[in-house]
Structure formats: structure tokens, C-alpha cells
Amino acid sequence: MTDAPIAARRSTLRTHHGDTFDDPYEWLRDKDSPEVIAHLESENKYTQEQLTHLADLRETLFQEIKGRVQETDLSVPTRRGDWWYYSRSEEGAQYGIHCRTAAVAGDWTPPVLEPGVPVPGEVVLLDGNVEAEGHEFFSLGAFDTSDDATLLLWSTDFEGDELYTVHVRDLRTGEALPDEIPNTGSAFFTPDGTGVVYTTRDDAWRPDTLWLHRLGTPLADDVQLFHEPDEKFWLGAGITRSRRYLVIAVGSSITSEERLVDLTGDLTAAPQLVWPRQEGVEYSLEHAVVDGEDRLYILHNDGALDFELVSVDAADPQGERRVVVPHEPGRRLLGMDAFRDFATVEYRSEGLERVGLLDYATDAIEDVTFDEPLYSAGVSGNPEWHSPFLRLGYTSFVTPGTVYELDLVTRELVLRKQVAVLGGYDPQDYDQRRAWATASDGTRVPISLVWKRSFGEPGDAPRPVHLYGYGSYEHSIDPGFSVARLSELDRGIVFAVAHVRGGGEMGRQWYEDGKLLQKRNTFTDFVTCAEQLVADGVTTPELLVAEGGSAGGLLMGAITNLAPELFAGVLAAVPFVDALTTILDPSLPLTVIEWDEWGDPLHDADVYAYMKSYTPYENIGDGSTYPRILAVTSLNDSRVAYVEPAKWVAALRAAGARDVLLKCEMVAGHGGVSGRYNSWKERAFELAWILDTVGLA
After folding, report:
1. Alpha helices, H only, 536-658
2. Catalytic residue positions, numbered
């Protein structure tokens, strides 16, 4: 049996604010070094050997996941113009196939498509399997058709670094146009179909410039529409559903600013500023026509912590603001979608997503209601300015992904499709509920639980628990169904989510209380939730496994230092565990824009000291009895570099941690491997490790 790889210790001194840190493993950052690649490969070999005994279980889990999925399937078609657009999957194929079929004038009921049954009049627009041929990794980025439906735009990434190449095809002839645009982010057609609007990134991987490419012209002639010089701001763009305005949006974690270009005029005209940026003020807009007048509906937090919705004259957006939906503490307004005759408002209340219909004439909101105590719902797939139906997505921990359409006349929810789960799945066999833990400062932290009923109620007797957490960027971990999770639940595991501060589950203050100089609340909340599950008899430390990814991987690293005795195992996916080193270096991708989330340790000594007190890599305790740890990363990840978990694992081993494994995908990005079968195998690998850790292998 191969010994655990031991990385060489090479001194690299880092001094800031009078503090010097000697980093012995910073040399692992050199991605082009054959020695570094050899080390990562040795880590992969060691991990493979250590988990050889799980090979049969991994295959069993993969077959279980695969066996529950209807491999040949189709999405619910979405109407755009004179066509119904949909995607389908085929058994044995890794990637989706994107198609369309002609719509019947005046018929807004989507055609019912049956798996395995040919669709009359189907036109295959793009086959992801053909695109991926000859490549170990494939990601589809932009995907758009021109308004007249004659051209297709799509972009591809074969490395995992999220730099895409745009391609264009004439759908009348099937011929590819010579217009290829490399190194892009987002991309879409101009409304007249004669050009492509796209973003490019700077050296720090930040989208910073918006361009217009006229089809058939050299790339050197592309026109710069907008450039954002401030390194703290991202750039994005899109076209309003009304097709009236190009919206150019820039934003940091806490501040945003938007500009408009009237598409009835010159696309290259100077964009109109909506509201000037103001530190700490975020806003987003939608265009509507009310009583014949162009109005902008703006969702903002200027003096409104949980946001309010106002309406302004599109010709004078900095003029009078009419309050449409007032600020209400604890009701976090999330977004608005404007249509011809009404709008939708999505908001969060008591930890759950909610959808309401907004009447332009009265400002009244009519909620769309659902029966389950825990669920996720949102507006999804409504590109048309006018339709008699509003499409909604819905799911819960026990309800597979569901597509509803709300009849806007009868207010009836019409079921269009629910994801099929093969093998006799019955949602009545499972249950879900909300529990609560109380933090040391008195804050009540919600915990979501889902389990299989045949094993009894959580708390009847200690059971294995898989506890998931994230807690950053105001991102909420909402109830959602997982086919792969059934393999855990059916073996008696209780799956739980700790909705810790730093996320957005309980409103904007919940986020504010888990960032910057209050970031430690995220970590202590998670520990409190774990302790509560033990105190309630739901589990024991020997049966408790924690999981988190990316910023949730930072959470995993922190809790292993704070309470290593509380967990049997910790699964950290693309973990942000060397946070201080990364946030100190503005030359690294995305660092500067992260200062609003974590603080600026480069220029602020207090932030430096605070981050150093919790960043996992620098707080590993010699002699601590660490739980089993599995870190999963990707060589080409442009968001959380592979070097962070590589250094973390090396330091853990040096501190005496005995069962620490690193798995590095050598061709993948932040989201891991590409292709659905590869993704299922990856999840089976992780689930097998979890089951083994709690004694269920």
C-alpha cells in the first residue's frame, strides 16, 4: 500500500501589518510545474488505493442513481416567437440535445412530449454530445436564437476555466458562420439579429468590457459598448423582456449601477445612467408599459434593508420614485419580472421562497400558494412579453422537480411535468420538517431535515446524519429534490441542512450577520446545529458527517478546527480553505471583488487579524484528533484554485491528521466533471465515502 504523499516544506514568507507567516506549501501553486502535477497525481493514486474497498459500493450507488433517472427524457417546451424550444436527453449520452418544433398560432399550451417518441417537426439546434466529441471536458455557455429564429448562437468551454468561444450558425442552411469570438463570458444576439453583444474578462477573470460584434465583420472592428474600470465591479448585460432596452449592469457584492440603451435607436449610443452608484446600495430594474407610459420598476435597498420596489418614469429615472411594494422588515424582496399586463414579485418570508402576482393598476400582490411546509418555488422559463400562462418551477426535499403553469384567467395551477423517478419512488415514504438550534447570542438557526419514514422519526434513536452547509454571499440552500440523495435516505441516513448566517434564508440581516467581521457566526452556527442534533438524540458525533463546497468548503475547514470531535467525517468540495492567502493577493482571479464579502486584509489590519483567526489553513492544530476528511478539487478551477485544498491537506497530514484524502480532477472546473454520467459517478464516489464513514458501507 502506498504511503500518504508528504509534500516538501519550503519556506515562503508572507508579511502584512507586522505579522509574518511562513507558508511551507505555497510552492504547490505553480500549476505548470511537473513536480506539482506529480504531487497531485500521487494524491489521486493514494486516494484511489485507500478507497479500493469501496469500488463495489461506488458501482452500486452509480447504478442506483442511473436506475432512478429516466435517461431518455424531454423538458417542457418553452414558447418563443413561432417556435417551441426544448431539450432532450438520450440513454447513454452525456449531454443534452437542444431542439425546437413549430408552434401553432394562438395555441399557448405546450405540446406534450413523450420520452422515446419522435417529436413531429423536430429541428435539432445543438447536440452537446457532438460538441463534446474529442474533449474530456465540455461546458455549454451562452445559447440564444435571433428574434427572427434564423440564427443560433452558442459558446463552448473545453477546459473548465469558464472562458468560452462563441459560435454562430445559420439555421436556414445549417452552415456555421465564420464569426468565432474567443475568451468571452456572456453573449446574445442583438434584437435585429445582425450582431452579437458579449463580455470579456480582465486578467483577474472579472467581466469588465461589453462589446458589439457585427456579423460578417472582423473581430478587430468590434465596438466597445462599455468598460468598467473599477476592479471591485462585475459587468453583465441583457435585454428586457419587452425587447425595448439593452440593460448594462455593474455590481459588487454590496453596490450596483445600471444603464440603458434604447433599442429603438442606435445600439452604440451612450447608455443612459439609471441611478448613480452609491456605496452599499443595490438595485435592479424591469421595464413595463403602464397606461401607455414607459416605466421602470426598480428593486432597491436604499434605506430599505430587505428591499422595496418603486416605479419611475423611464425617461427620467432619477426623478420621482413611487413606492409600489414598501419595505417590510423580514420580508426580503428577491426579484421582479415584468410582463405586458402584470408583474411577478418573488420574495422570501420565514425562510421560504414565495411568488406573488403584481397588479399594475392597484399595486396589489396576490400570492401563489403551495401545500408543503418546506418547498422552493420561482418564476422560470417565461421569455415572452405576453402569454396567458405563467410558468413556475417547484420542488421540495420529497417532491421531484415540477413545472407548473398558472392560468392567468382562472388562477389554476396546471401541472405540465414532474421529473420521473424510476424504481417505484413514493414521496409518502419520506418526510421533511424544520428544526431549530439556538446560538450562544440567542439567535435561532433553522435546520431542515429529510428522512425515510420506515426508519422512524429523527430523535427516536441516534441515526447517521449528513449535515450540509454553505453560509456566504446571501446564497440560500433551499429545499430541493435529489435522486442521488435517495441512496442515503434508503440506507437510514437523515439528510439535514444547517441554514447558517451568511446565507440569505432569513433575510438580509441574516447575511449581514455572517460576513466581514461577523464571519465567525457562520462557523459557530453550524457547530451549534450539529450540537443540537446530537442533544436531540438525532445522531451522535460518531454518526455525523458534514459537507460543504466552495465558500461552504471554507465552512468545512473552519468547523474541523473549531470542533473536530463533533464529526466523524468532513467532505469539502472545491474548498476555499486558504482564504487569507487568496484575499491578500489582488492579482489572483476575483480577489478584489471579494473584499466586500470578506473584508480587505491587504489594507486593513483588523480584517487581516480577524481572517487569520479563522482561515482553516492557518489554524490547523498540532495534535488535534481530526475527523476523516475528503477534499475534492479541480485543476482548472478559476474560482477556488486547486492549491488551496492541496496545501490544506498537506498541512493536516503534517499536523498528525491520519485519514485525510485529496481527489483532484485533472480536467475539470469549479463545478467538477462534465457530463451527467461522469457527475453521477463523482457523486457515487462521495456518497460511498460518506456511507463508509458512518459504518454503512
Report:
1. 551-562, 579-583, 595-598, 605-614, 643-654
2. 550, 637, 670
